[in-house]
Each structure stands twice: as C-alpha cells, then as structure tokens.
Amino acid sequence: MNNINEGLTKISDQTLMILDDDDVFRNRLITAMKRKGFDAYGASSVKEAKLLLREKSPKYAVIDLRLNDGNGLEIVSILSGSRSDSKIVMLTGYGNIPTAVAAVKEGACDYLAKPADADDIEAALKAPYTSTPEPPINPMSADRVKWEHILRVYELCNRNVSETARRLKMHRRTLQRILQKKSPR
C-alpha cells in the first residue's frame, strides 16, 4: 500500500516556477509554497525564466507582470504554448482590467493584485478551470487600490508630478501630498 502512495506522489506534478524581480518576496513565496507541497523554484527576470523553461516546463507558475527586463505576459505565452495543462497565476501591483484580459488570453488562469499571500495563490492554482477561487479573506481596501493606481500612473510618467497630475485630472499639490503619505492598508 505504501508503494502505491509513493507512486501517486511521483506521478503528481507539483512543479512551480515563481517569476518575480522582488528577491525577498520571491524567496518567501518559494519557501511558503514548498511547505504547501509544491516543488517550487524561482526566477528573477524574463531572461532567466526563458532559460529555466528550456530545461523543464512547470505545471504551475506564478508570474509578476512587470519585471526589470520585460513583461511577464511573454513568459505566460511561452509556458501556456509549451504545456497545455499548466496553471498560471499573474501577480501585479498595477492591476487593471485590460491587463487582466490580456493575461487570461495568453493562458493565465487567474490574476491577483499584490500583495497576495501564499494562501490566495495556492487557492488560485488549485481551483478547477471551470470555477473561480474564493474571494480573498483580506482584500485591498479601496484607498489602497486608489493609491496603487496613482503610483502606477506616476511611474508611467517617469515620476513627473506635473504630468501625472494632468493625466489624473487633479491638482499638482494634491498629488504631492498623496505621494508623501505612507501607503494605505
């Protein structure tokens, strides 16, 4: 009986690639996912992920959208093209509807906004394709979502306060006050 269980464990593919350029977050997530039974390993760039995908195609992947050397959607496309049974979750601190749609079209099964914890990620990876995972227990507050959006536009405007304020249709001084405050929870 013990040999049968060992055989099933070996057949069940639990490989998980975590692609994120935040070293601390990636390493903590790898540790947490290993505790949950995944054979987790990481990559910090699109280039490194491409090299790892040449060696093996993981069953599961957690991929950050914006990386220092490119876009995580490129890796989603490669992985979903090479392995049809893969389950891919996109992570990003810059969530928006068009990006979520693009991620799903490329092959992602779910899209989570940062900060996402290991339990939320596991639920998304283990959810059947035909259903969606349970909503998060501690979702981001509306203030946090607003703050993340403002920061995203600020970064896209190359940290130019005047241009960001113009695009967000707000006064420049108001934007400066918002940027000086700590992020809401």
Report what the structure shows.
This protein is of the alpha/beta class and about 180 residues long. It contains 9 helices and 7 strands, in the order αβαβαβββαβαβαααα. The strands form 2 sheets. It has a 5-stranded parallel β-sheet with strand order 2-1-3-6-7, sandwiched between helices. Strands 4-5 form a two-stranded antiparallel sheet.
Structure, briefly:
The protein is an alpha/beta fold. Helices cover 51% and strands 16% of the residues.
The main sheet comes to: 5 strands, parallel
CATH class of the largest domain: Alpha Beta
**So, the CATH homologous superfamily of the largest domain?**
Response regulator
Alpha-carbon Rg, integer: 19 Å
How many separate domains make up the residues?
A: 2
Question: What average pLDDT do the residues reach?
Answer: 82
Intertermini distance: 50 Å
Main-sheet strand order equals 2-1-3-6-7
CATH architecture of the largest domain: 3-Layer(aba) Sandwich
Helix content: 40-55%
Helix and strand element order: HEHEHEEEHEHEHHHH
Number of helical segments with 4 or more residues? 9
Give the tags.
7 strands; 16% strand; 51% helix; alpha/beta; five-stranded parallel β-sheet; 185 residues; 2 domains; elongated; two-stranded antiparallel sheet; Rossmann fold; Arc Repressor Mutant, subunit A
Secondary-structure map with pairings?
Blueprint: H1 2-11, E1 15-19, H2 23-35, E2 39-43, H3 46-55, E3 60-64, E4 66-67, E5 70-71, H4 72-82, E6 87-92, H5 97-106, E7 110-113, H6 118-126, H7 142-156, H8 161-168, H9 172-180
Helix pairs in contact: 3-4, 7-8, 8-9
